[in-house]
């Protein structure tokens, strides 16, 4: 389906956004962990990468106790190659990467720089209104 959208020119690689959400896992499972937002009950965290228009490009699942920044590499490394308009190699890399303060650390910024992706990550300790 993503290939069809890419060939139709409906995927905007100019900007991507990554965020996560914690969900309580009542029955547990392999990808669960203590949920810090739900008094330590077992939970799962979904990490979703979207394009500029909010179209999901990739989803990773982890235990709720994993820090958001630990999943940047797996999410970006595992983006499925998506065919674009015309000829050439399929796209796998965004131009600009947006994320909230949970992803603000040196390791993430270095990883993005090495892959040629511009980071637009909110800074820890800086009010977003500034």
From TrEMBL:
Cited InterPro entries: Transposase_11
Annotated organism of origin: Leifsonia xyli subsp. cynodontis DSM 46306
Pfam short name (any one): DDE_Tnp_1
GO MF term set: DNA binding; transposase activity
GO term, biological process aspect, one: DNA transposition
Residue ranges occupied by any Transposase IS4-like domain in the UniProt entry: 16-118
Name this protein carries in UniProt: Transposase IS4-like domain-containing protein
């Amino acid at each position: 389906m993503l290939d069809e959208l890419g060939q139709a020119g409906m995927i905007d690689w100019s900007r991507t956004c990554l965020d996560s959400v914690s969900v309580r896992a009542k029955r547990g499972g392999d990808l669960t962990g203590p949920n810090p937002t739900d008094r330590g009950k077992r939970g799962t965290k979904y990490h979703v990468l979207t394009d500029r228009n909010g179209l999901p490009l990739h989803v990773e699942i982890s235990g709720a106790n994993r820090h958001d920044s630990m999943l940047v590499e797996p999410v970006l490394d595992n983006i499925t190659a998506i065919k674009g308009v015309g000829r050439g190699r399929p796209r796998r890399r965004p131009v600009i990467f947006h994320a909230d303060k949970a992803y603000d650390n040196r390791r993430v910024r270095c990883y993005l720089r090495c892959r040629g992706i511009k980071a637009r990550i909110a800074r820890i300790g800086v009010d977003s209104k500034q």
